[in-house]
Amino acid sequence: QVQLVESGGGLVQPGGSLRLSCAASGFTFSSYVMSWYRRSPGKERELVATTSSGGTTNYGDSMKGRFNVSRDNGKNTVYLQMNSLKPEDTAVYYCNARLAYRTYWGQGTQVTVSA
Predict the structure, then answer these.
(1) In 26-90, at which residue ranges do the beta strands (DSSP E only) sit?
(2) Sign of torsion over alpha carbons 76, 8, 47, 92
(3) Beta carbons within 8 Å of 82's beta carbon, 6+ residues apart
(4) What is the pLDDT of residue 48?
(5) How far apart are alpha carbons 16 and 1 in whole angstroms?
(6) Which stretches does DSSP call E strand in the chain?
(7) Quick one: CA dihedral 60, 61, 67, 69, positive or negative?
(8) Which long-range contacts (CB under 8 A, 24 or more apart) does 100-103 make?
(9) What's the confidence (pLDDT) of residue 25?
(10) pLDDT by residue for the chain (115 residues), tens digit each?
């Protein structure tokens, strides 16, 4: 059974940092493109960051320089380090695994940036 379990969300002040984790099971993690997406109320889902099976990374424009995505294939886990957080980063963050026509989603973790 495929599972993607996000953790690490919470409430943080503007300028603060959080690290999200996504623990995967039930598929060959190292072969999949792993991504983080987010959705804010009233907005469409937005790509945050992607790491390929080989470790190549890509980021949404507003995240460049502030967020860092990494993966540990030995632990079947992908991470999202978020720094210099802004109120507009408030959203539910979702982990996604993709390989060809297969795609899996986690349940999401809430990140709230507020003073």
Answers:
(1) 33-39, 46-51, 57-59, 67-72, 77-82
(2) positive
(3) 17, 18, 19, 20, 66, 67, 89, 111
(4) 98
(5) 36
(6) 3-7, 10-12, 18-25, 33-39, 46-51, 57-59, 67-72, 77-82, 91-99, 102-105, 109-113
(7) positive
(8) 102/27, 102/32
(9) 97
(10) 999 999 999 999 999 999 999 999 999 999 999 999 999 988 999 999 999 998 899 999 988 899 999 999 999 999 999 999 999 999 999 999 999 999 999 999 999 999 9
Name every residue whose Cβ is closer than 8 Å to that of residue 22 and which is 6 or more positions away in sequence: 4, 5, 6, 7, 34, 36, 77, 78, 79, 80, 95, 106
CA distances from 86 to 17, 62, 76, 98, 107 (A): 10, 11, 29, 28, 23
Structure tokens at 91: 């959203």
In contact, 50 and 60? CB cutoff 8 Å = no
